[in-house]
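REQUEST ID: PR-0412
SUBMITTED BY: lab tech R.K.
PRIORITY: routine
TASK: structure prediction, single protein chain
INPUT:
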Amino acid sequence: MKGLKKIALVTAIAAAPFAANADLKAMDDSMMGDITGQAGVTIELETQVSIGSFVYTDEGSFTVNGIEIGGSGLAGGAGTNLLDDLYIDIDVEADGDAFISVHSTSGAPIDWGMTANSMSLVAADGSQSTTLVSNLSGHGNLAQLDIRVDTATDQLQLDVAFNVVDMDFDVEFLGVGIRDMAIMGGTFFEQAGNPLTDNFAIADVDVYKGNGLGASTATDVLRIDINDITMDMNIGAIEIGGTSIGSVALDNLTISNSKLAVYGH
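STATUS: complete
OUTPUT:
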């Protein structure tokens, strides 16, 4: 009898969590906020990333060597080598949308920098290669990065405001050098007095699964819709054979109503 009582007691204890769970319901972001006074997750970040090589292989390969990503100091800017002074807010809204927003802790734009030693095309057996770009170095600032996964449309929606303060690189196989390239807002050359439109290029892009364009019969392709990209661009010097042939400026460059369909063949 004592043995039976012990078995009954153990069975009751084991069954208790299942009985309790019968009345439990999943808590969404807003319900959690009602209880804790908070909703969503915030992640503060400081980082510096080094990648020895990135290789995309089809038959031959496209290779990027010596990648460094961090603060503007990596590329000669005024900041440190760390990508820092930022935090990321992650929320799941009542309609199920996921919303990710990157902010500056200090309120100033987030400075970034990157360098890459070379970008090359390489034959499958490694016997031949062509260096497309070398000595890439650039830095700038990020003012806005909002990412939304929209459950109503199944789209990834990107809103970005950024600039490139200074970028240099060599197009080695053509003997061309790009010096002091800057990408700013659409009114940068006019200096209208609005810091956002003066100093930061903007991009509004949707990414989703869809069909090909026009008469294409392709389905389930990667669709990229560019709703708006607006910027001013300035290249301080274009060098050919090591000698500058002059500068180039693009004022009020706007790309809109542009659609891409990407798929394998």
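NOTES: Residues 1-30 form one domain.
REVIEWED BY: pending
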